[in-house]
TrEMBL record:
Residues 1045-1058 have a biased composition (Acidic residues). SUPFAM superfamilies: ARM repeat. Residues 1011-1032, 1045-1096, 1142-1191, 1245-1265 are annotated as: Disordered. Pfam families: HEAT_RRP12_N (PF25772), RRP12_HEAT (PF08161). It comes from Brassica napus. Residues 1249-1265 have a biased composition (Basic residues). Belongs to the RRP12 family. Residues 16-279 form the RRP12 N-terminal HEAT domain. Gene3D superfamilies: Leucine-rich Repeat Variant. This is Ribosomal RNA-processing protein 12-like conserved domain-containing protein. Residues 1142-1154, 1182-1191 have a biased composition (Basic and acidic residues). Residues 344-651 form the RRP12 HEAT domain. The lineage of its organism: Eukaryota, Viridiplantae, Streptophyta, Embryophyta, Tracheophyta.
Amino acid sequence: MDSLCLGIETGLCLTPSEPDLPVSGDFGEFMLSRLSQSKRPDLNHLCAVIDELSKALAEGNHSRTPVAYFAATCSSLDSLLSSDAEPPLDVVQPHVVILSLVFPKVSAGVLKRNGLALRLVLSVLRLRSVTPECLISALKCLVHLLTMGNEVSEAHSVLLNLATHSDGKVRKLANSCLRDVLEKTRGTKACQSVSGTIAESFQKHLDLAHNSEARSAEGAQQVLYLLSTLKECVALMSKKHVATVIEGFKMLMVTRDAFVARPVIDSLNALCLNPTSEVPVEALVEVLYHAAVLFSAPETSADAMTSTARLFKVGMVRAFSLNRDVCVVKLPGVFNGLKDIIASEHEEAIFAATDALKSLICSCIDESLIREGVNGIRNSNLDVKKSSPTVIEKLCATVESLLDYKYHAVWDMAFQVVSTMFNKLGEESSYFMRKTLEDLSDMQDLPDEGFPYRKQLHECVGSALGAMGPETFLNIVRLNLEASDLSEINVWLFPILKQYTVGGRLSFFTETIFRMIETMSHKAQQLKLQGLTAASRSVDSLVYSLWALLPSFCNYPVDTAESFEDLGRILCGALQTQAETRGVICTSLNILIQQNKDVVEGKEVPVNDAASPALVRAITRYDSHHAAANLEVMRSCAPKLLDVLSKIFHESGKDDGGSLQSAIGNLASIAEKKTVSKLLFKTLRELLMATKTAIAEDESSVSGMDVDHTSDKNSSSNLRARLFDLLVSLLPGLDGQAVDTVFSSLKPAMQDPKGQIQKKAYKVLSVILKSSDGFVSKNLEELLELMHNICHVSAKRHKLDCLYFLLAYASKTDDLKARKDIVSSFLPEVILALKEVNKKTRSRAYDVLVQIGHAYADEENGGDTEKLHGYFNMVVGCLAGEKPQMISAAVKGVARLTYEFSELIASAYNLLPSTFLLLQRKNKEITKANLGLLKVLVAKSPVEGLHANLKSIVEGLLKWPEGTKNLFKAKVRLLLEMLIKKCGTEAVKSVMPEEHMKLLTNIRKVKERKERKYAAGSEMSRSQHSKETLSKASRWNDTKIFSDFADEDEDSDGDYMDGESNGRSKAPSVLKYKASKKHPRQSHLEVDESDDEPLDLMDRYKTRSALRSSELGRKRKADSDEEAEFDAEGRLIIYEGERAKRKEISDAGSDAKSRFSANSSKKNQKRLKTSESGYAYTGKEYASKKASGDLKRKDKLEPYAYWPLDRKMMSRRPDQRAVAVRGMSSVVKLTKRLEGKSAAEALATTKFQKFRSGQKKPAGKKKSK
């Protein structure tokens, strides 16, 4: 039977804070109306008591408020408890329940009056035979009285006694009461009193369990109960009594019992994690040190070690924040304890200990601790007497010991701790961790078979490099370039130096690294003179590796102002004499200049969470004053560098990656204006002379044809092109007047008959428009006149860049007439560029179209949605063009804007009638553009918009003129599948014309077939399919959206552009090419039939693709699977052009010549096998002619099962990946079949069995004949 109090509080939904409980009304009537219908005996007892109290109040002519019932209940309960005999519990319990209900409705003054209520509650709690239910109600009354300020130590004792009650619910409520009392009386004498009572009780039960053998079991149980209480209350107790409790914890940890240790650790965790708790630091650190000694034993459980490691982390960090000196003394002992936990075999404990060590290193090692250790080492070097190692030396020794072979199984975790220590110590790590770095260097020599942590080792060494700096690092771990044997050089250090060097000194590069470069270059020349070409090349590669360190040394160096002049002289010489280093040098200059410019201009350097501490320290050292001084020094060296770089750029005619141009541009941006102007006018003079020479050559030409010797780098066209590129690089350092001069020189070049010159001229103009504010408004008339000229097709992309700035300017002007004139003049040219054959030009046209739209919609610069719609309408107006090229280009422009701006979707739907009319034209160009627009609408529209226009879309798609129906049926099918996916099959079916229902049925069947194949697939294919659905799709791709043929992958089903239309979307575009385009190795007229669809011979593209794939397949099969050739010195031989066929000694070689002969026997042919996804190595050299099975060959590896790797494994399409990994299943299945069998049994069940059966079959056939 349920308890009385639970029946009221849960069954009748009454709580002490019940809002419906009357404050001044008839409490008895309210309770009786709620409980009178109950048939439970305990509730009937409660109703009887309430009825008696109501009658007593009525006789005394008292009001029936909660206060009156409180007084009447107290009086009645007092009379029951005053009798000598034990009061009946079935009468006492209803009285206590009534008190628990009316207490919240009675004022504090009434409750405190005479102390009657508190005395009655304590009397009930002392009853021997009281039930747990009655105790729970009495406890609620008691906690209400104590939180109102009743300071009674006797009440606290009662609560503590109940905290060790045998009933779990009573203990839980008692603990909660103690916690509430401590929390509400925090900082008062009552809190001190309760804390003292808890501490005394804990110490008492602890002594009882320790000393009394007769009651040891009972005492231990009481201690466990009190530990649960302390877990709730210790963080709220006073500091003095917490220290007493922690001393008790220390005694309990000696037992090393998991049942005792876990609540102790939980209590300490609660104490340390509470930011307002009063922590006695000395006692806490002492118990943590004690735990570090005890819990390092191997027999400790995994759970205990894990919780202990986490306690060390929070406890020591909290102790360090309160009292550094006390914490630091015990820190080495805690580190040793965590080190022993790392040596355990429990993974969770290892991770917890590693995390704790890293946290303690970061939080508990400060500058004073490091400085103390450094001073100690310096004193010992000066022969000053040293008593003992400092704390930081002990910590570093502990971290270093993690690299012992004892910890080889957890070296990956040890490397993390070592890296953290290097990062924390910084440059001072050279004092403490020199031996550690040497040990890390020695680990590089470990064989790969027994050392799987090579990557983690290099990261750890990189941390040491970033902390110490390259100079100190290379003094400890040497490159060993002076070794006579090149194999002894530590070449593994070069990638680490290149990646992790930051904040170094340029002087170290100029004095040390450059000396190494000179030495190795001289050595390479000597080896070359001795005829050792291979060794000379190896040394040359080392020279280049040393030069490749320069960009890293230019990454926030500390001595730019002092050392850049020396570096500049070296770089000028290297640029002129060593052409292979120009890219590295230019990259270094770009890094150095750009970093200082960003700091001076106030740009915030992006530093992510993964940035190394060395990089953070280097960035912190750079301020605007420091960067300005660096730029001043570089400005003084800029004239010489600019002169050398411009001369090289002018003469070489080759600038791979544009490094020379970018370096000239950065130097021009910081150089003095007169220096750049001088170089500019020199360039313009050379340009004028080159132009005159070109004109003279054209006039002297007899044929009069436009002949440009582009292969000759010294030709006039190439020379002028390089000069224009040089002008682009000089633009960042020019003022307004110089820019106007450059613009004047561009005008004739923009009308030059040579496309190469036009292209460069438009490129220069686009850079001017991009970088010069106000240039468009100042030269608007001239620009408009120039843009009206017809340009060469190769210059169109850069002309589009220029048109963008003109149209963007028009979008911001307030002159409506000027805006209309500019847009109407140049927008059609941008739209027509959408049809360009050149992909870069076409993509740039799409970008310009979208960027102009953003300019119209940019509210910060005067744009709004209304202007955007006006711009959209101007694009739509181009549909009125007469030629199909203009109409299809306008449709593509509409589709691109609709894809980018969700606000335009509703306006695009208004074009659907015109779209369906255009679909009726027998023009392939217009049709495919309109189908692309429909794809964008279906993919980008919300479902509601599609439902509203579903009928018109479906009917319009299915109305086709004769002659074009078969050309785009796959596109229409894909659109219908997208509609089904977004709107549902039933919605599409309801608007589908009856004569086309078969198409809908076919789509459904194909989809079900695919689902069945997926469900029946292996677990690997399903996981690959899930990866495919989560992979990031591509962005807008006009080539796939407006494709010429039906080459979309039906598996995509519109996934390519799925997503909600919210704002300026950058949703990806979707359409994927068919597998027939990606599988050129298929046989004659063979296509991907994964969808069970036959080859459509009406489709010209598919037919041509199938024929082309068969030709490519025959060509690839003609090439033999030859091994690499090596010469006598072991160098790989690479043939230029087609590789010569080698003669084969075996008879199989002669058979290979007739491999594709129709007359050759199938038994003798050793064909190169191809998998469904491409070429696969088959191991034919192990094949036997006489029987099945493999043979051992001389100078060959033993035969092995081979799983061919295939690039299709990296494909985003799950069906292609499934085909690529299909071969692995046969290897695994065969292994499973042969598992546990002897060699004879395996051969009998596989190869020889098949061979015997193969011999019997021909005999049987011969006999039947």
